[in-house]
Amino acid sequence: MRWLTVLFSLVGAMVVLGACGAEPAPTTVSPPAAQPPATTTPTMPSTTGGLSPTDAAYAQLAIPQAESALPLLDAVRARSGDPALAELAARAGVGHRGELTRLHGVLTRAGLSYLGEHEGHDMPGMITRDEFQAADRLTGAEFDAEARVLLRKHFEESAAVARAELGAGADAELLALTRDIEESRGDYLSKLSIR
C-alpha cells in the first residue's frame, strides 16, 4: 500500500504544478515584527475545480487501471467456455466503461486534462499488454483459468486504490464514484469466486 501513497503524492504534485503553469510557488514574506504572524490551519492544497491533489492523482490512476482491463473483459465475454465468467466479464465491461466516462467527466469539470502517464505501466491492478496477449493465446479451460487470475488481481488492486481515495479524498462527486467502484469490485470478486 506504500506505493499508493508515494504515487498519489507524486501525481498530485505534478497536477498542482501543471495547474499552476509549472511555476515555483512564491516565497512567503514574514510580516513585520510589529505584527504577530497570522496562525493558519494547514490545509491540503487544492487543484482547480475542487479536486485535491489526492483526488486528481486517483482519477489519473483509476482511468488507465480500468482501461487496461477492457481487452481481457471483452475477450472473456466473447470466448469463455464458462457462462458465469462470460456474464461477469460482460457486466464488468459495461461497468468499467461507465466508470471511465464518469472519471473523465470529473477531470473535465475540474479543468484538468487526462495525462495518461500510467498507460502501459506494469503496476498493481493493471493488466499489461503482455499479460493480455499471453492469456489470449490460451484456449478453453486454460484461457478461463488465466483470465480469472488476471481479473482477480485487477479487481483486488483497483478496490485497494479506491479505498485509499475514500480515506484521503475530498471531492464529493469523485468520492461517490469511488464508492461505486469499490462496491462493484467487491461484487465482481464474490462472483469470480463462485464456480
From TrEMBL:
| Record key words, sorted | Signal
Q: Which InterPro entries match?
A: DUF305_CopM-like, Ferritin-like
The segment(s) forming the DUF305 domain are 55-188
Query: Signal peptide position in this chain?
Result: 1-18
Q: What is the protein's given name?
A: DUF305 domain-containing protein
UniProt region (Disordered), positions on chain: 25-53
Organism name? Saccharothrix xinjiangensis
Q: Which Pfam families match?
A: DUF305
